[in-house]
Structure formats: structure tokens, C-alpha cells
Design a protein that fits this description.
Elements: H1 2-25, E1 40-48, H2 59-64, E2 69-77, E3 80-88, H3 92-102, E4 108-109, E5 116-118, E6 122-127, E7 130-135, H4 144-155, H5 161-166, E8 182-184, H6 187-193, E9 209-217, E10 220-228, H7 232-246, E11 257-262, E12 265-270, H8 275-282, H9 303-342
Antiparallel strand pairs: 1-2, 2-3, 3-7, 4-5, 5-6, 6-7, 8-9, 9-10, 10-12, 11-12
């Protein structure tokens, strides 16, 4: 019996102590969200839009996206300094448009960062309604971890969720050339990107918004263009103009332009070479339409209660008007009484019968 008791006591001790050993071994490790670099802003200068060309921008393009000026900031960690160009835009769509316009196939996305791309010269970022350029200095270059810390310190790892929901849907990814996707809001940017296309036919003055990307098709590349308009009626008129002036959906070799309209969208394929390739690219889009109507006003009060409230409101309004009229009459009476008492020579305090009219007539 003693041996059995000792055996069970030893087993109970092991079972009791095991959670403490497990908890010690499974102690959670907390990883810091931000790298340890202690960046700080040491300077901020407002700049005119014309000076943007010195920092890699194009004033004509920025002006088309709504930029009126920019701020040149300087951040420092230790002896290392980095300049950041902050361009305020009217909304998140404009900031995203600038990011897509300046992005090149040579740029690569920053690891763990959304809407952030880099090359050897600069890093581009879109955050809310701001478009940012992080200039890579040649004299004092921060380490990779320090630069990652600067990106997070200035713009965070990603935009807010409500901003991401307002951005346009991305182009189909199948066959898309990295860095070729663009979001255009004006004629000047469209001319720079679509160099061999009659961009004046798009109709930016009627609210057109353009998304495009280059796609690998066989031995060459084709450009897939999506144009959205405020209404299907505008899209129908514009599609007719494009068909007439560009000779769409006709086999003209490598210069053929194929297109179709769906609702308020127009899809174009440039340099497709043949209709089959163009159709395969345009088939990646799916346009769904929905009809909405004005819903009846829902209230917690019944019709009878609303009617009683309306009648009471009418009575209250009538009482207020009558009360205001009586109060005005009383004030009028008191003012004449006070004027007669304190200003006996004033005409305001006496009635017309108390006044003597004299006519200075001479014969």
C-alpha cells in the first residue's frame, strides 16, 4: 500500500507541475511593430508646384491630378538624412493615380507595404489623399531596416481600410506586365501613356476615368484599356465616336483596335493583332448592373401620432404668433408712456389731439 501511495503521489506531483514547465517553455515572444530606428522630422518647407521638376515630378501632370503645391520634408536618424516630397491631392483616387502614373516596370513593391514601390532612385507611396516621394540620397544612405522604419514612420504599412475600398478595382492580373497598370484622370497624362492613340476621343471633360495595363500576348504586348463614364448614355455616344474615328473591330494588322461597350464602360484593346486575342483580354471583365429606388421613409410613429404632432405644432405656432403680436403692442404702449413721462417735449409721448397745429398765414 505504501508503494502504491508513493507511486500515485509522484504522478500527481508531475501532473501538477507540468503546466508551469509548459507555460515557461511556451512564453509568447512579442515582436515590435516598428523597427528600432528613431527617425524624427527636422525640417518642412512649403514649395511651389513649379519646383517639383527638381524632385522627379512633372508640374503639368501633378496639376492635372489636382496638386497645387507640395511640402519638402527632411527626416533624420543619427547623421543620416532623407528628403520626402509630400504632394496633397483632392482625394485618394488622385493620389493613387499619381502613384500608378510614375510607377515603372523597373520598380518593385516594398515588402510588407501596400501601395509602395521603389527603385534605385526613389520610393513612391500613396497614403490617403497624399502622394509621397522618398528620395534616395547618394551621400548618406540609410540601411534597409532604417529605411523601412522611415516608411512606416511616415505613412504606415498600409492605407486605412475605408481608403482602400474607395480605390478603383485593379486590372485583371492574368498576363499583366508588372508596373504597367495606370489610372488616368486627364488628357495630359493620357498623352504621355497612350502615345499612339487619339486621346481626345476619350472625353475626360465628360468625367471619363481610364485604367489600363500592358499584357503579354504571344510574342508581343497588348494594351488593355478600361474607360468608365458617369452614365451609360455618355458611354454610348463616346463609343460611337471611337468606332467612327478609329475604325474599331476591323482587322488592320498590328495597329488594330478592338472594343466593346458594357453599360457605362468601354473596353479597348490596342495592338492585339487579331480579334481572338482582343476578345480573350476583354472577356476578363465582368460588368454587373443594379437598379436602386427611393425607399419609403421608415418612422417609429404611426400616422395618427404624426397627425396629432402636426396639429399640436400648428397650435403652438399660432400661440407664438399671437403672443408676439400682444407683446409688440404692450411694448408700443409702454414706450409712449415712458416717453411722455421722461421726455414731455417729445412728440412720441403725446397723441395727435394734444398737438397744436399752427399755420403762419399772413394777409
Amino acid at each position: 500500500m505504501a508503494r502504491i501511495f508513493v507511486k500515485h503521489a509522484w504522478l500527481a506531483a508531475v501532473l501538477t507541475a507540468s503546466p508551469f514547465f509548459c507555460s515557461a517553455q511556451e512564453k509568447p515572444v512579442v515582436m515590435p511593430l516598428l523597427p528600432a530606428a528613431d527617425w524624427r522630422q527636422v525640417d518642412a518647407r512649403p514649395m511651389l508646384l513649379e519646383a517639383l521638376s527638381q524632385y522627379g515630378g512633372d508640374p503639368a501632370i501633378e496639376q492635372e491630378y489636382g496638386v497645387k503645391g507640395f511640402e519638402l520634408r527632411t527626416y533624420a536618424v543619427g547623421k543620416t538624412r532623407t528628403q520626402v516630397v509630400v504632394e496633397p491631392t483632392p482625394d485618394a483616387l488622385s493620389a493613387y493615380g499619381l502613384l500608378s502614373f510614375y510607377q515603372t516596370p523597373a520598380m518593385t513593391p516594398e515588402k510588407g507595404m501596400q501601395l509602395t514601390v521603389s527603385d534605385a532612385n526613389e520610393t513612391l507611396m500613396a497614403r490617403g489623399s497624399n502622394f509621397l516621394r522618398f528620395l534616395h540620397g547618394k551621400d548618406s544612405t540609410p540601411s534597409a531596416s532604417d529605411f523601412q522604419a522611415l516608411l512606416i514612420f511616415v505613412g504606415g504599412s498600409k492605407p486605412p481600410e475605408d481608403v482602400l475600398r474607395r480605390l478603383p478595382h485593379f486590372m485583371p492580373t492574368k498576363g499583366l506586365v508588372p508596373g504597367s497598370e495606370k489610372y488616368l484622370l486627364g488628357l495630359e497624362a493620357a498623352k504621355r501613356v497612350l502615345t499612339s492613340f487619339r486621346t481626345e476621343l476619350i472625353g475626360f471633360e465628360q468625367g471619363a476615368e481610364v485604367q489600363l495595363g500592358q499584357y503579354a500576348t504571344g510574342k508581343g504586348k497588348s494594351t488593355l484599356v478600361s474607360i468608365s463614364y458617369p452614365t451609360p448614355q455618355i458611354a454610348r455616344i463616346r463609343f460611337g465616336a471611337l468606332t467612327s474615328f478609329l475604325g474599331m473591330n476591323r482587322d488592320s494588322g498590328e495597329d488594330s483596335v478592338y472594343g466593346r461597350r458594357q453599360g457605362s464602360y468601354i473596353f479597348l484593346v490596342l495592338n492585339a493583332g487579331n480579334e481572338r486575342t482582343a476578345s480573350a483580354l476583354m472577356d476578363q471583365f465582368q460588368v454587373t448592373e443594379s437598379v436602386s429606388w427611393d425607399k419609403p421613409y421608415v418612422t417609429e410613429r404611426t400616422f395618427t401620432v404624426q397627425l396629432v404632432h402636426m396639429i399640436l405644432a400648428i397650435f403652438i405656432l399660432t400661440a407664438v404668433i399671437i403672443g408676439s403680436t400682444i407683446a409688440a403692442g404692450v411694448l408700443f404702449f409702454l414706450s409712449r408712456r415712458l416717453a411722455a413721462k421722461f421726455f414731455p417735449n417729445a412728440q412720441w409721448g403725446h397723441t395727435d389731439e394734444d398737438q397744436l397745429i399752427r399755420l403762419n398765414l399772413k394777409v
